[in-house]
Amino acid sequence: MLVVGGFGPAQAEDLKFTIAYQTVVEPSKVPQADGSYEKVTGAKIDWRKFDSGADVITAVASGSVDIGYVGSSPLAAAASRELPIQTILVVGLIGESEALVARNGSGVSKIADLAGKKVAVPFVSTTHYSLLAALKHENVDPKTVDILNLRPPEIAAAWERGDIDAAYVWDPALGQIRTNGTIIVDSAKVAEWGAPTFDAWIVRTEFAEKHPDAVRDFVKTTGQAYADYLAKPEAWSASSPQAEKIGRLTGAKLDEVPSLLKGYVFPTLAEQASDKFLGGDTVKAIAATSEFLKEQGKIDAVLPDYSGYVTTKYVKEAAVSN
After folding, report:
1. Which end of the chain has fewer CB atoms within 10 angstroms, the N or the C?
2. What is the pLDDT of residues 280-302, one digit of tens each?
3. Across-strand partners of 18?
4. What percent of the chain has pLDDT over 90?
5. Quick one: CA torsion of 7, 11, 12, 17, rounded to 10 degrees?
6. Which of 312, 309, 314 is nearest to 286 (CA)?
7. Pairwise CA distance, residues 56 & 60, whole Å
8. CA distances (Å), origin 182, targets 101, 109, 201, 292
9. Considering the entire predicted model, what is its pTM?
10. Is 94 exposed, middle or buried (CB count within 10 Å of its CB: 0-12, 13-18, 19+)?
11. Which three-class secondary structure string do you get for 303-314?
12. Do residues 97 and 260 make contact, with C-beta atoms less than 8 angstroms apart?
């Protein structure tokens, strides 16, 4: 059937878009593995794995990625550069799932010991932000620390070679380096110190305007995955199908999946639009992170208002859609 001046029924069937994901252990890896996003949206999805949020932002900026998984630090940097994006879902508040680990025998047992040491972290990531915040809290001048810009796989490799003394990273690299190291501080503690971090899904504004239903259905499917986990977290055991799917997509060890999931605070779909998240505090957190990044010389300027980079539209529509 031909529809003149409108959308034909083949449009949804022909829809193709690209999603950038990272190897973070979180519930939406299950519908990703199951092909649920394709079924719900009726689209062909090209899933691309990225090692850092900074890389995801670069891909989104180039137009090669439509929806992407990023941390609050690269999100703030992107918004400060006025990249045409919107935050559509908060994945979770980061807690123990990101941590600073010191190599056994490195002589590092506390943050103050990092002076003069080689510390690896993916630049402009949530762990980079947390590392700088931890150094500031403990009155350690970051210029006295040899901070190296390495992606998680590169951190794991450098750790194996003995090239670095410490690293602030997430899984699966975190799990690998912990076998020969000691956790000095995690992001739950850094959040208590006044520098909380979170992960989020963002969308290119142009894509969202052209395909709002696809964005809504993406949000709904992701929210359902969180709801399934929150309803019965004990069912997501190391021997569960959920753990197998998460491990397959992330590289995490199955016996570590349950504890890694507990390293996040996952908001429900209903909570997403509240003042605590997209309805208020997410905007404040992006602004605060931007202020810190400018202070650290990572961005040139801070915007007067970040509300245009966060929307409750899709979580509200997903919550009421059938």
Report:
1. C
2. 999 999 999 999 899 888 899 99
3. 46
4. 85
5. -120
6. 309
7. 6
8. 5, 8, 31, 27
9. 0.84
10. buried
11. CCCCHHHECCHH
12. yes
Residue range 88-101: mean pLDDT, rounded = 93
Whether residue 30 contacts residue 4, with contact meaning beta carbons closer than 8 Å, is answered with no
Residue pointed to by tokens 């992170």: 289
- Rounded to whole angstroms, the maximal C-alpha distance in the chain is 72
- 214-250 pLDDT, tens digit per residue, is 999 999 999 999 999 999 999 999 999 999 999 999 9
Distance CA 114, CA 111 (A): 6
Q: Summarize pLDDT for 262-272 with one digit per residue, the tens.
A: 888 899 998 99
